[in-house]
Amino acid sequence: MVVHSVRxxxxxxLPALALAVPLAPPALADTCCANTRVxxxxxxxxxxxxxxxxxxRCLAADNTGPLAFxxxxxxxxxxxxxxxxxxxxxxxxGLPQDIPPTETWLPFDSAREAGxxxxxxxxxxxxxxxxxxxxxxxEDGNGPGAGIHYSTGPKLTVGDPPDTATAGPGSATDxxxxxxxxxxxxxxxxxxxxxxxxxxxxxxxxGGGTGADDA
Length: 215
Hints:
The chain has three helices and eleven strands; from the N terminus they run H-E-E-E-E-E-E-E-E-E-E-E-H-H. By secondary structure, it is α+β, with helices and mostly antiparallel strands. Strands 1, 3, 5, 6, 9, 10 and 11 form a seven-stranded mixed β-sheet that branches. Strand 7 and strand 8 form a beta hairpin.
């Protein structure tokens, strides 16, 4: 009787327990992130310089929008993420592991918006020389990790630009163009040659004139 009673209790409780335990959502690969083209001016800058961003947007996770323009922070990533038309579709690449939480990203110097498309100014942080992809975070009210975007436009090159004044065409170091020393030698040689020819002609004239008088 006791065993039978216990079995009846178990049969009654099992369905109730099953309903009480929430069903776990199916595991999906991480997805990331809204993306659009942002122009950078200038495209090469040193740490501490100001750079203007044009085409900044705040989009939904599926790349639709624009949403309210609320960019809060940016990050320069020394990597490359290609454009994704459906970034919210699983499976996806997820957020790069070497990108820190948005709480540690850097603030914009200024940001303004007109017609859903905005621009902003940033100060280049102290990072190693290299090429960086722009990432930014828009506050959209969906909690940490939401509102992350990246640019599919040109990258920002951090470091000193090449010295075109000394290495460009027509410069002293350009092998196609003679430097100042060869030019001076050439001018001096031509001057000496012209002088020699003139002296020779004068001597001939004088010699010919003397012969006529003697005759």
